[in-house]
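We emphasize that the prediction below concerns an isolated chain of 195 residues; any contacts that depend on oligomerization or on bound cofactors are therefore not represented. The input was used exactly as deposited, without trimming of termini.
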Amino acid sequence: MQTHNSVQTANDCQAGRLIVLTGPSGVGKGTLVRSLLQRHPQLYLSISATTRSPRTGEIDGEHYYFVSRSDFEKMIAQDQLLEWAEFAGNCYGTPRLPIEQQIAQGKSILLEIELEGARQIRQSFPSALRIFILPPSFAELEKRLRDRRQDPDEAISRRLQRARIEVDAASEFDLQIVNDDFDTALQQLETAIFG
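Result of the prediction step, given as a token string:
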């Protein structure tokens, strides 16, 4: 059945569109995006621009577009970004031109992004399909954050506080998907994207 859908979707994607995925840290957005890209190579992953320096192994134009702060500020001034924000002293944003070019070629683009960026996209690209990924519960979200073993308790507490604010905004989105069972969530995403 999934193979049949994949064949159909290659034709259905001719129109091309922007698909925005948002949700709190630890909800599984990145894993869902990676699975979608593996299963549907016709999808394209948006690449963000950033003013931060490349980390070991990161390639310009593949992981990020690495730009100077002055170039980033020019991009803002010239309305070349669909959205942007500053985190930890570095700027991050979604360049408009590559998205518009891919859509013009009939490709659908996935953009995994934070809430504020998704709100900006609603204004700058209103035709985007905006999907919010929800945790099954805050207890499960906390468990997932702790199981990653990436953050100290204080950072996990901050992420959970932020998650409550983000979850309160889920109704602003076209669709909400609860990532309780991964395969079910993935199937719901595929249905939303490909019909």
